[in-house]
Amino acid sequence: MTAIDPVRTTPAATPGQRIAGTPGGPGFPAPADPAPQAAPAAAALTAPVALESLLALQQVDSATEQDRAAHRRGQALLAALGRLQRLLLGDGDPAAVLDEIRALADNVPAAADPALGAAIDQVVLRARIELARRPASPRG
């Protein structure tokens, strides 16, 4: 094990005296007071960067929202497919669930993430296969 050195306090400096290794020591002059005209120039230089950052942030939020919407739709489709499976195993009437799957499989939002988009496409494909295997529900 290595020993830890005890905490050392730096000695207090008298006014006008500099202590080596402390801020303001040799080699680091104190900054001069900035001119009042320098502040607006600096703000003008950072404004375009901030605008670009805000635009990029909006695009990220848009992509995130697209992914969330696609994820919600995929989860709803999986839940409906699970209900269909339980109804078919329990000898129930799947007409209402088939209508729900048909509505969910239409107009699926596109995902910004390619991996999520591929997974959603597979779920939609499975839903369409189930719809093709079953006769259309009577509409009245």
Q: How would you characterize the overall build of this protein?
A:
The protein has 140 residues and is an all-alpha fold. The protein has a domain at 65-133. The chain has helices at 38-89, 95-105, 114-133. The radius of gyration is 33 Å and the shape is elongated.
Topology readout:
Blueprint (H helix, E strand, L loop, with lengths): L37 H52 L5 H11 L8 H20 L7
Helix pairs in contact: 1-2, 1-3, 2-3
Query: What is the percent of helical residues?
Result: 55-70%
Largest sheet: none
Gap from first CA to last CA:
82 Å
The overall average pLDDT, rounded, is 77
List how many beta strands DSSP finds: 0
Measured on Cα atoms, how large is the radius of gyration? 33 Å
The low-confidence parts are none
Counting copies of identical and different chains, the oligomeric state is: single chain
Q: Which strand-content bin applies to the residues?
A: under 5%
User: Count of helical segments?
Assistant: 3
SSE run? HHH
Please state the structural category.
Answer: mainly alpha
> What is the 3D form?
elongated
